[in-house]
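User: tokens in, sequence out, please.
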């Protein structure tokens, strides 16, 4: 199963890193600055359940051409519409999505699938 995680900070970074550590095929859709940071330092998780690091495979919106079986949107609620626009229409695959939004209170309409 190929997984695309949108965002590699608190939510997207944690869940994506856990899946990558478990051997899943995970790619992170990130902006250029974050891609450079992840290429240099990897993705580090600091947790009361144990700290770990993984090498993060990244892609930027302009280079997003592959199909994914699952897309996990780990973004702030105000960034979700932009994030969804970045992958919508990039493939003929119907994506199951799971928005895991940070700061979602007060904006439930933003989680509507496009």
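Assistant: Sequence out:
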């Amino acid at each position: 199963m190929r997984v695309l995680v949108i965002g590699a900070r608190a939510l997207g970074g944690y869940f994506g890193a856990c899946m990558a550590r478990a051997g899943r095929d995970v790619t992170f859709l990130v902006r250029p600055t974050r891609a450079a940071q992840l290429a240099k330092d990897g993705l580090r998780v600091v947790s009361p359940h144990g700290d770990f690091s993984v090498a993060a495979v990244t892609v930027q919106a302009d280079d997003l051409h592959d199909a994914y079986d699952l897309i996990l949107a780990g973004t702030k609620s105000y960034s979700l519409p932009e994030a969804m626009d970045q992958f919508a229409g990039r493939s003929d695959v119907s994506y199951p999505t799971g928005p895991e939004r940070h700061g979602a209170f007060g904006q439930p309409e933003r989680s509507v699938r496009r």
